[in-house]
Specification:
Layout: H1 3-24, H2 33-40, H3 49-58, H4 65-71, H5 77-84, E1 85-87, E2 93-95, E3 100-102, E4 124-126
Antiparallel strand pairs: 1-4, 2-3
Helix pairs in contact: 2-3
Length: 131
């Protein structure tokens, strides 16, 4: 058995893993940036990695995205939801025991946006700051 033939299964697995990683992190057809980023946070938050990936793939003309997110206090992907936008109460779950709303285990399906947009779909609403 040659070294090349021994490496073939490893190379095949690496190729499959690369394909799978791309497939898992692709924005869905019509998916808004906010639904995409929220879904991608499962893989971690490192800066505006997911928001920028969405912009690069789906809305390359949205050159002011970084500035817009920063103006909402969103310096990283998770801060988009901590400081900028939240799931509308209509889609949250009410717990009468704690008297608080919470996000469901799985978000409703994205309401979609036009091609090239970085605007949120109808699931999301802006946080308003009062200071």
């Amino acid at each position: 058995m040659t070294a090349e033939s021994e490496l073939a299964p490893v190379l095949h697995i690496e190729r499959e893993l690369r394909h799978l990683s791309v497939e898992l992190t692709q924005p869905k057809l019509g998916e808004c940036m906010h639904c995409y980023v929220y879904r991608m946070l499962e893989f971690g938050c490192t800066g505006l990695r997911w928001a920028e990936r969405y912009r690069n793939l789906k809305a390359p003309r949205a050159t002011a995205l970084h500035r817009r997110l920063m103006s909402k206090g969103a310096g990283c992907d998770c801060e988009i939801f901590m400081n900028g936008w939240s799931l509308r109460r209509t889609y949250q779950l009410w717990d009468p025991e704690t008297e608080e709303y919470s996000y469901p285990e799985e978000l409703p399906a994205c309401r979609g946006v036009r091609a090239g947009s970085v605007q949120p779909c109808g699931l999301w609403t802006t946080h308003y700051r009062w200071w």
